[in-house]
Amino acid sequence: MGNDLVREGRRRVGWTQAQLAERAGTTQSAIARLESGRTSPAFDDVIRYLRLMGLDLDLMLVERDDSDWAQAQRLLALSPAERLLRHEELVDELLAFRKHDAA
Length: 103
Known about the structure:
Structural class: mainly alpha
Helix content: 55-70%
Radius of gyration: 20 Å
Oligomer: single chain
Shape: elongated
CATH superfamily of the largest domain: lambda repressor-like DNA-binding domains
Number of helices: 6
């Protein structure tokens, strides 16, 4: 997960791997290995990389609820054809949202 956070942070600020590596005092290949998951960064390193990019990570512990299970049960009540139709409708809505958001 740390590798995904570093990669996403770097993309958000528009830096190359080489730019992050230079600011972090490491090599581009080390950043590439980290982002690809070939190495696993320590949590402190993830925070350090994010802060170098002017970002921070906000974590919260929250009470767990059963909303995911309730949604899964509702979907299980649908027939395969109804699930497919629901999925197609959701895809259409997302595509329309993206199109509207890009305009």
